[in-house]
Amino acid sequence: MFIKQVVIEGFKSYREQIATEDFSPKVNCVVGANGSGKTNFFHAIRFVLSDLFQNLRSEDRHALLHEGAGHPVLSAFVEIVFDNSDNRIPVDKEEVHLRRTIGLKKDEYFLDGKHITKTEVMNLLESAGFSRSNPYYVVQQGKIASLTLMKDSERLDLLKEIGGTRVYEERRRESLKIMQDTGNKRKQIIQVVQYLDERLKELDEEKEELRKYQHLDKQRKSLEYAIFSKEVQDAQQKLAEIEQARNKVSEISAKKYNEVLDAQEKSKDLENNLKDITKEHQNLIKEKEVIEKKRTTALKKRTELELDVKDLQGKISGNRHAKEEAAEQLAILENKIQGSMDELNNISPLYDNLVQKEKDITKGIMEREKKLSILYQKQGRATQFSSKAARDKWLQKETDDLERVLSTNTTQEKKLMEEIQRLNDEMRGCDENIQSRKANITTLESLIAKSRERFSDYKVERDSLQDKKKSLWSKENELTAEIDKLRAEVEKAEKNLDHAIPGDVRRGLNSVRKICKTQNISGVHGPIIELLNCDEKFFTAVEVTAGNSLFHVVVENDDKSTEIIKHLNQQKGGRVTFIPLNRVNAPRVTYPQSSDVIPLLKKLNFKHDYTPAFSQVFARTVICKNLDVASKVARTNGLDCITLEGDQVSKKGSMTGGFYDHRRSRLKFMNTIKQNADSIHVKEEELEKVKFEIQDIL
């Protein structure tokens, strides 16, 4: 027997499937550069044949899988083909294929394509000479060098161990020990047999005594039965009497019990009424406080308005007095104007007379001058004046007199014109003053009318605002009561959800929230139960399918989960399973085309970014119409099936079902929390708007 061929796939540095050429039955040598996978090739052989890779933990399994670029490897296998022409392996075949497959959660053995247990593999290898007690059928790296450096005594021990003599000596010592133990047990058995013989004699004597006792006991029992029958008859009579009394008492107690139940119900109703009345009382107290505040504000505003009214009334009265004074001044001005007009009318005839007189005097002077000149002409210059100088002197004197009279008349005329101009200016000023006074009076009257209209409008607006304020107060109280009620329902749903979550998981989720908040860690999307949404009729199917996977936390990448796990270990904050989106790939599943089969994943609502996480949990499960359809689909398509009632059929053949308490549905609690939280948010926004409107009114 020898190893004919080795097939490796996904193991350490071997990603793709690699099969060696057929080995020689003599000596085979593996040659390659450093890092080409020689050591991993021998590890693959030991992975199948030796005990080196037994009882592996999760990280050990992960270390055996290929790690590199591209899609992660989820499973690996190593298959060794033995040449069994000498029938050293007890199988009627010339070639024996022994395969070991390992994944993140599985470790399986296959012999010629058939699944076998690990114990069967060990027995098969033992029969072929691969003994656990002699692990030198595979010479590890460095063993030859250590063998050359051994002492003679150590080398002798090694040869004994390889030759099997040590095993023989150990088994001989074990056999001698077993023989000694057997001799001791034989002596003990002889002693026990002697004791049993003595005991049998004692039992024979006791048997005879027992026969006598049984005979006497029968007589005693017959007497006791007679006495007992009589006592039973007396007891039955008394029991009948007691039963009658008990029935009467039971009827009375039933009535009392019903009365107590009625009283309890009434007390519960009264307690509920008391709670409602207490809430109403508290709301009324709050409303009263608000009304008192608003009343004081209204009183202040009323006082301010009254002061404004008084100011307006004072202004109106002042305007009236000003109007009266203006009217008086207007009358005085009109009187003055009338007097001025009368005076002007009186002066105008005098002025006209004086102007006429002036014209007549001027005309008379001119006529006289003409007559004088004529007379001078007649008389002659020689006869009138003694000399030319006397004549010129006389003429100059006459001219000066005439100019003096003319200047006097001109001055008087100027004065009269200035007086007339002044009176006209005064008339125009009085007219302008009258017009301005009339305009002021009209303006004041319009302002008074507008103030009265505005006052009435303010009064109407105040009444409407008071009505609006009352309606807003009532709406505010209603919204506050609804928000309190919704918060109470949210607290109740959160408590029920906490009771439905395992303790470690609940503590872990709370710790994750605290860690993300304190350490400011982003990229943590939350548990799956908070990220999904679906119709209520699918709640049972989703819960049964996911199980505790509902509380697996979806994170952006494995760095985030590693960081949070470190903090959880430091704080001892429970256990949480994380689903890194960068490490999870959505499985490719082919669903049957039938109206009785619906993929569960298609009935869930979630963000597209979370598709890999949800696919890992729900992609391999379909919803079936009933258990018959589920059994058929699981058998033919290799999918996990579930009904709307929560009955499961696994692709491996197992069936799980029974009653499911919908009242303790975790998705129902979460749905209640989400809906009430949204309602609280809407109500709080509406309440803020109402408060803002009330503040605007105040």
From TrEMBL:
<dbReference type="InterPro" id="IPR003395">
    <property type="entry name" value="RecF/RecN/SMC_N"/>
</dbReference>
<dbReference type="InterPro" id="IPR036277">
    <property type="entry name" value="SMC_hinge_sf"/>
</dbReference>
<keyword id="KW-0539">Nucleus</keyword>
<protein>
    <submittedName>
        <fullName>Putative structural maintenance of chromosomes protein</fullName>
    </submittedName>
</protein>
<feature type="coiled-coil region">
    <location>
        <begin position="186"/>
        <end position="294"/>
    </location>
</feature>
<dbReference type="Pfam" id="PF02463">
    <property type="entry name" value="SMC_N"/>
</dbReference>
<dbReference type="GO" id="GO:0005694">
    <property type="term" value="C:chromosome"/>
</dbReference>
<dbReference type="GO" id="GO:0051301">
    <property type="term" value="P:cell division"/>
</dbReference>
<keyword id="KW-0131">Cell cycle</keyword>
<feature type="domain" description="SMC hinge">
    <location>
        <begin position="522"/>
        <end position="634"/>
    </location>
</feature>
<dbReference type="GO" id="GO:0016887">
    <property type="term" value="F:ATP hydrolysis activity"/>
</dbReference>
<dbReference type="Pfam" id="PF06470">
    <property type="entry name" value="SMC_hinge"/>
</dbReference>
<dbReference type="InterPro" id="IPR027417">
    <property type="entry name" value="P-loop_NTPase"/>
</dbReference>
<feature type="coiled-coil region">
    <location>
        <begin position="406"/>
        <end position="496"/>
    </location>
</feature>
<keyword id="KW-0132">Cell division</keyword>
<dbReference type="GO" id="GO:0051276">
    <property type="term" value="P:chromosome organization"/>
</dbReference>
<keyword id="KW-0175">Coiled coil</keyword>
<dbReference type="InterPro" id="IPR010935">
    <property type="entry name" value="SMC_hinge"/>
</dbReference>
<comment type="similarity">
    <text>Belongs to the SMC family. SMC3 subfamily.</text>
</comment>
<dbReference type="GO" id="GO:0051321">
    <property type="term" value="P:meiotic cell cycle"/>
</dbReference>
<dbReference type="InterPro" id="IPR041741">
    <property type="entry name" value="SMC3_ABC_euk"/>
</dbReference>
<keyword id="KW-0498">Mitosis</keyword>
<dbReference type="GO" id="GO:0005524">
    <property type="term" value="F:ATP binding"/>
</dbReference>
